[in-house]
Amino acid sequence: MIEPNIPLSQPDVTDADIDAVVSVLRTPRLSLGPKQAEFEEALAAYAGVPHAVAVSSGTAGLHLALLALGIAPGHEVIVPSFTFIAVANAVRYVGAQPVFADIDPETLNLNPASVEAAITPRTRALIVVHTFGRPADVPALLDLARRHNLLVIEDACEAIGAEIAGRRAGTFGDAGIFAFYPNKQITTGEGGMVVTQDAALARRIAALRNHGRYDCRAESVRTPSPETSDNWLEHAELGFNYRLSEMQCALGLAQLSRIDSILARRESIARRYWDRLRQNPDLRLPATDIPNQRLSWFVFVIRLGPSFTQADRDRARRELAAAGIATGRYFAPIHLQPAYAAWRNTADLPVTESVTARTMALPFFNRIADEQIDRVCAALERVLSPKT
After folding, report:
1. What confidence tens digit (pLDDT) does each residue in 135-174 have?
2. Disulfide engineering: 361 pairs with which of 122, 157, 328, 383, CB 3.0-4.6 Å?
3. Among residues 211, 228, 256, which one ends one of the domains?
4. Is 210 helix (H, G, I), strand (E, B) or coil?
């Protein structure tokens, strides 16, 4: 296999981004400084919520949100299996049990009917994932949650900038999580953010990310520092080291300042793929125009037609790799992963298992050239031609 010359993803880091990070390195404050507060305030303003807490990853954000909301051993949390494994892992981190629900075959997000069927007297929460940047059916899922007295956490790690009826995804539930891994729309290298309308919840998450330290000011949601806090060495509860450095926050601020142009560029890439591939009867493409929603393009995932098998998909991926084109397998179902062997027979997820056998993510990043997109599409159609 040759090294791919069209990668699956690639971070978009500009000279301005680099300058922002270097400027922090010229200061004495590399953690718990002003850039963290600025990044939190900027992200909260962008999302349209009063509170945002920067953390070391989206996974950390999920963990702390569950913990701060009181999810504990003996509780069940409904999650999709068609998503990144961190969603279910975070539930296990707090000692609760993930319960898998099936997805809608069109949106690839949680199917409200499957969610309702999975609710038991032990169910305490629902994690709504906005898969690939497409908003989930939030109105139906929130209605379910209200009727069954469930907490709602939105995993918007792939969906910064996505909207439902003009409101940002990630702001409907009790807490929302964003992530900034290098393949995301904006990056801090590693990093995440928890957003919420609840000041007390934000304050607890801010303390938990920093070893259980609370600012001595009762109204503050800020993490204390040795210079500003009288109780720096006082730890109110068991916490974690889930902080985000000043360098990462500076990079996040710089990236967030141009998020509108980033999202517009990614939308144009998705449209070029769609226009180039839409005539192929063997491909099912993601929708590009959905009433009352704005997508935030994280990846461009195609599905092979029903006549194709997982073996066909895997063969196509190998042949594309041999041509220097990287692709991704999004997603391997969580309930079929080795780490979840105990869950394998606990849920009937026919849509999840059918979809995942035929999905493939194509190269997708801000700086991909039109010529590269055309090359990917031509190669894809060539490797699929025996089935056409």
Report:
1. 999 999 999 999 999 999 999 999 999 999 999 999 999 9
2. 328
3. 256
4. strand
Which residues are registered as beta bridge partners of 6? Answer: 325
Let me know whether 325 and 382 are in one domain: yes
Question: How far is residue 202's CA from residue 220's CA, in Å, rounded to a whole number?
Answer: 9
Cβ(293)–Cβ(134) below 8 Å: yes
pLDDT in tens, 327-381: 999 999 999 999 999 999 888 999 999 999 999 999 999 999 999 999 999 999 9
What positions carry a catalytic annotation?
184
In the numeric block, which tokens belong to residue 237?
Answer: 């509860």
Full domain range(s) for residue 197: 15-102+109-256
Distance, CA of 77 to CA of 88 (rounded, Å): 9
**3-class DSSP state of 254:** helix
| Close Cβ partners of 371 (under 8 Å, ≥ 6 residues apart) | none
Q: Which residues contact 167 (CB under 8 A, 6 or more apart)?
A: 48
Q: How many CB atoms lie within 10 A of CB 1?
A: 7
Looking only at the bridges linking them, the beta strands covering 192-196 and 51-55 are: antiparallel
The phi-psi region of residue 175 (left if phi > 0; otherwise alpha if psi is between -120 and 50; otherwise beta) is: beta
Q: How far apart are CA 106 and CA 328, in angstroms?
A: 20
Residue 7 lies in a domain: no
Read off the pTM.
0.94
